[in-house]
Amino acid sequence: MEKENVKLLSMWASPVCMRVKVALAEKDIAYEEILEDDLKNGKSELLLKSNPVHKQVPVLLHNDKPIAESTNIITYIDQVWPAKPFFPSCEYERSRARFLADYIDRKVYPAGRAIRGSPEDQVEAAKKEFLDILMYLDGTLGEKDNFNGDTFGFVDISLIGLTSWFPAYEKYGGFKLEDHYPKLAAWITRSWARETVSVSLANPEKILNFVMEIRKIYGLE
Asked: CA 116, CA 97: separation in Å to the nearest integer?
């Protein structure tokens, strides 16, 4: 059998790149990570060629064929390597998983970005919006170990990739997630205990230092 040629165009701090790395680790897929230089010094020719529409990471190169956008990439990974599926077998539950992943994409990161990028007088409103968004996810998780029930699946992968940024949101928002949503906080702890997650996500302290640098650039520190 011909060896798979899998490469990931990535950026170390990107939460959507991290979720793709988790997906690849969950499927035990060997790959080469090609890092963009923080996207400060211009985007590489390979990235511009591989994703000419959005010109952004992540991009998965599978046998030199590019697949763009993290949620689309994770779905592709699950279809091409079907062992240990990410989605529930029930079509209705699959539709729910797609809905929740879309909710996470549209809501969670933008709301967190508003917290860490807001001046002091706007932080409270940004924090409230972020916590309101997480309230829905906390209620959806309920008493389950994972969003997919007994197994760590598509929704879990979609959300866990964002959580290395959560300590920065907590710092600049002046809150602790566990004080508001202990079940969701416990899910994060359980998920980070998975080797596939811990080896794929950036250190939250490193992310916090990165956010501090961004805030200095924009005159917020």
From this structure: 28
